[in-house]
């Protein structure tokens, strides 16, 4: 979460003054990026819902492959919440920035849950996967409830 | 490219009949996904442009970290070009589907260039990075010229 803390505490001026490490040229680029990273993560996570619910047969390889991608993606979107990215084409609530510590903690909770899910997914054990999938889904919902407009 | 070939040759009906492996519930989900994957890839690739052009100092870690993500992303978007995803909020030209073999070859060319760039990026050698970055950029442009509307 170093990057998030850094981004959240940096002024927009400071961000724009860091050409060597410039992640986004414009605030709207950061917003587009974070939404894209969430979209890819949610796609690979969400498509396993029916398997986690036992509605389709467990397939260890499908689970492991998709969760590995979701876990990789989980590290990315939070770099896109820097200062100056609160306005624009976004559903992010002002609390992302006004309660930055709480938001950072919610992000870390998701990332930790996703990492644990990745371990469970690699194990090939259906029950472990289902339990960890449910726990991870709760962290998604928790953060959406607090930090995303409907 | 197995997944792409599979997706491109499958009828929409067949795709929708594969619940266990269903990647996308609706064509618009696939379109949103592929655009998101390209957005994340382009962000991590594009931010290194100034460094590849020597306009900012070479930073081996920044290069390696960003290209590793771009290389991971390069595998993803082509699963989103399945049958039935030619209409909607997309700039993809009809040639993606009418010249599917050529599109698959262009996708592979980019993925191979990105893999070579990833090796160069990990080497920490600025000249190797710059050369491989340029080669990869050409594959992006080539595919956009042929398969993406302006």
Automatic annotation (TrEMBL), chains A, B:
Pfam family, one: Cytochrom_C_2
One Gene Ontology term from the biological process aspect of the record: electron transport chain
Lineage: superkingdom: Bacteria
GO cellular component, one term: periplasmic space
Gene3D superfamilies (alphabetical): Cytochrome c/b562
GO MF assignments: electron transfer activity; heme binding; iron ion binding
Entry-linked SUPFAM superfamilies: Cytochromes (SSF47175)
Keyword ATP-binding belongs to the record: no
Chain residues that bind heme c: 140, 143-144
Keyword Metal-binding: yes
Signal peptide span: 1-22
Record key words, sorted: Electron transport, Heme, Iron, Metal-binding, Signal, Transport
Mod. after translation: Binds 1 heme group per subunit.
UniProt name for this protein: Cytochrome c556
Species per Swiss-Prot/TrEMBL record: Sphaerotilus mobilis
């Amino acid at each position: 979460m170093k990057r998030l803390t850094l981004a959240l505490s940096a002024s927009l001026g400071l961000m724009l003054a860091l050409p060597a490490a410039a992640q986004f040229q414009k605030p709207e680029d950061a917003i587009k990026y974070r939404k894209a990273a969430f979209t890819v993560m949610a796609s690979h996570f969400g498509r396993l819902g029916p398997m986690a619910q036992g509605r389709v047969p467990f397939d260890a390889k499908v689970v492991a492959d998709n969760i590995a991608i979701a876990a990789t993606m989980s590290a990315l979107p939070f770099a896109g919440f820097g200062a100056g990215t609160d306005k624009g084409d976004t559903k992010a609530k002002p609390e992302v920035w006004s309660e930055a510590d709480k938001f950072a903690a919610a992000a870390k909770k998701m990332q930790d849950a996703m990492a644990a899910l990745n371990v469970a997914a690699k194990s090939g054990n259906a029950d472990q996967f289902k339990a960890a999938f449910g726990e991870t889904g709760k962290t998604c919902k928790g953060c959406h409830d607090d930090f995303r407009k409907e």
